[in-house]
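Supplementary Methods. Inverse-folding protocol.

Structures were first reduced to a C-alpha cell string of length 247. This string, shown here, constituted the complete conditioning input.
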C-alpha cells in the first residue's frame, strides 16, 4: 500500500516539496514555495505527496482563496497533480485524485475543478485523465478549459472577465509569475541578468496577493509570458528560450 504525507506547519521544514528535489540552484525557489504554502495552510490548502523521493503530489484548496482568476463558491481548485518518472502507471495519480475528491466531499463542497488545455501545455493536467472521473468543461478561454466535477447541483466556477482579455497594456516583454512554483525564482534572476547584459526591456510582475491573482489579465498559472500586449504562453523561460523567442 502506498504511503502519503500531507504537508503541515509542523512537518513542512523537514519534507521536500517534490518539484525541485536536490537542485541547489532552485533552493531559494523551494524556500519561497514553502513560505507560500505556510501562508496558504490557513485557507485550507492541501499539499499531499507520496512518501518517496520523487515528483508525485496533488495540491488544491478552496476556489475562493485559490490564486487563479476564477470565481466560484464552495468548490475546491486543483493547482497541480503530478506523477513523474518511474512512478507513472502504478495507480498513484488515481489515488491522489480520489483522495482530493473524497476530501472535498467530506468538507461539504459542491464540487472540485481544475485547469487543462485542449492541446497539451506545460504545467497543466491531462484533460482525458480528469474526464475519466466525470470532470466536464464548464468554461473556456481559447485553448484553456476549466473542468469541474459536480457533487450536487450548483453554480459552476467561471473565469473572471479580466482573464478573458489575455492582453496587457505594456508592449515590452512582460512576465507574470508567483512563488506557487519553486522554479521561478532562479529563472527570474537568470532572465534579469540576461536582459541587463543585452539591454533588453523586460518587465516582471509578481503575483504576491490573492487580489492580484484574481485580477490577472490571463488564465494565470505560475508563469505567463506577454509580448506587445499579447499573451504568448505559460512556459517558464530561461535565457536561451527568451533569446529564441525574441529572434
Amino acid at each position: 500500500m502506498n504511503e502519503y504525507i500531507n504537508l503541515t506547519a509542523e512537518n513542512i521544514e523537514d519534507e521536500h516539496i517534490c518539484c525541485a528535489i536536490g537542485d541547489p540552484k532552485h533552493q531559494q525557489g523551494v524556500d519561497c514555495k514553502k513560505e507560500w504554502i505556510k501562508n496558504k495552510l490557513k485557507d485550507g490548502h492541501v499539499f499531499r505527496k507520496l512518501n518517496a523521493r520523487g515528483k508525485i503530489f496533488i495540491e488544491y484548496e478552496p476556489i475562493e482563496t485559490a490564486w487563479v482568476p476564477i470565481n466560484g463558491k464552495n468548490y475546491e481548485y486543483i493547482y497541480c497533480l503530478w506523477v513523474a518518472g518511474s512512478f507513472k502507471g502504478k495507480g498513484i495519480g488515481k489515488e491522489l485524485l480520489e483522495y482530493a475528491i473524497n476530501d472535498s466531499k467530506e468538507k461539504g463542497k459542491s464540487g472540485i475543478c481544475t485547469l487543462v488545455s485542449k492541446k497539451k501545455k506545460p504545467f497543466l493536467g491531462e484533460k482525458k485523465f480528469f474526464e475519466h472521473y466525470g470532470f466536464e468543461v464548464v468554461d473556456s478561454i481559447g485553448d484553456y478549459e476549466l473542468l469541474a466535477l459536480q457533487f450536487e447541483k450548483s453554480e459552476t466556477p467561471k473565469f473572471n472577465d479580466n482573464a478573458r482579455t489575455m492582453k496587457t497594456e505594456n508592449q515590452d516583454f512582460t512576465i507574470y509569475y508567483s512563488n506557487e512554483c519553486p522554479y521561478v525564482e532562479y529563472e527570474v534572476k537568470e532572465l534579469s541578468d540576461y536582459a541587463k547584459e543585452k539591454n533588453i526591456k523586460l518587465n516582471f510582475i509578481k503575483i504576491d496577493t490573492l487580489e492580484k491573482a484574481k485580477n490577472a489579465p490571463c488564465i494565470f498559472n505560475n508563469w505567463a509570458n506577454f509580448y506587445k500586449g499579447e499573451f504568448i504562453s505559460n512556459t517558464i523561460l530561461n535565457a536561451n528560450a527568451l533569446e529564441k523567442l525574441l529572434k
